[in-house]
Amino acid sequence: MMSALLRKEMPAIWHVGVGVYGKEYWFSTRIESKDLGDTETAFGMAPHATYDLGHTSIEREVFEIYLEEELDDRFNIDTYKVFTHNCNHFTRDALAFLMGGEVEMPSYILENSDRALEALPQGQALLTQTIANQVARVVMLAWGNANRSKEEIAKREARRKKKRIEADEAEAAEAAGEEGGQQVA
Q1: What are 80-138's pLDDT values in tens digits?
Q2: Is 53 a domain residue?
């Protein structure tokens, strides 16, 4: 499809995710994850390539909090752009957090999406971006809804509720400490 829109032969704009803690994390309509063994069935094919980037000292819970608190608002269906804000960009940001800074992904991964429109006249590039983003949104919403797990949604909501309760308890404990003495209920 991209080759037809761009009127030039294009290599794939790769799906990219982060494999860590026995799961793959990626961005489609939202930040998603599946057990590493299950991602092949989610995408209908085996990975084209995998790269060992080393080890992280970040604990899984800390990483998942980072995803929720820092990346959820930046990577969702409303912010998705086929060429400029996709799973490749999510992976770059997630890896930077996990590895403590800039991580060198194979250059062709980001270059294909970042440079896909460079050879086109500005008007055609803008039209191509607009059409590609609209088509991708429809396709991704349909795919995302078909693959959305009620269990994953329930877990995410439970984590958010737990965080709210912990924050409320910490605030109450701080207020009790300011009043002096032990709170009695």
Answers
A1: 888 888 888 999 999 999 999 877 777 777 777 667 777 778 888 788 778 887 887 78
A2: yes
Tell me how far apart the alpha carbons of residues 23 and 39 are, in angstroms, rounded to a whole number.
9
* Predicted pLDDT of residue 145: 62
Residue 132 lies in a domain: yes
Per-residue pLDDT band for 182 (boundaries 50, 70, 90) equals very low
Total residues belonging to the chain: 185
Structure tokens at 185: 């209920």
Q: Rounded to 10 degrees, what is the CA torsion of 42, 40, 13, 71?
A: 60
Element (H, E) at 184: none
Six-digit token pair at 38?
A: 């299950």
- Report the domain count for the chain: 1
Tokens 């080890």 belong to 55
Query: How do 18-20 and 31-35 pair as beta strands?
Result: unpaired
